[in-house]
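Board notes, transcribed. Complex of a protein with tetrahydrodeoxyuridine.
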Amino acid sequence: MNHLELIEKAKEARKLSYSPYSNFKVGAALLTKDGKVYLGANIENSSYPLCMCAERNAIYHALMEGEKKENFVMLALSADTDEPCSPCGACRQVMSELLPRDIRIFMSNLKGDIKETTIEELLPFAFSSEDLK
Ligand code: THU
């Protein structure tokens, strides 16, 4: 699967968003080396801080199916934004710990704009488990 197909999967995931409070739907799709795709969408709650982002839902979905970090090769996210949708800070922190350094990350919007980025670019000087030693 190429990045354009993965972005289409993220757009499909977006349709599963539960976002009655923000009305802002986000979809994410995580691809493994053996071609499996795990979807995530943002899921909100009337207790607002409990809202969960699409990217984290996709990552946790894959981990709960037994996938290993080393096997993740691409992550795509999509939302109806002017510029390709950028992951929030909390997701960047989670991505920096649970995704491999060399994963390809594609931000996109519904108009077809795409921007490729990396973990390092999204979160330089990340806090990590190394800092706890
Ligand atoms: N959201 C995501 O799903 N991913 C992001 O990286 C940015 C924000 C969701 C959270 C909330 O449900 C809605 O978008 C508005 O912030």
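The chain has one domain: 3-132. The mean pLDDT is 98.
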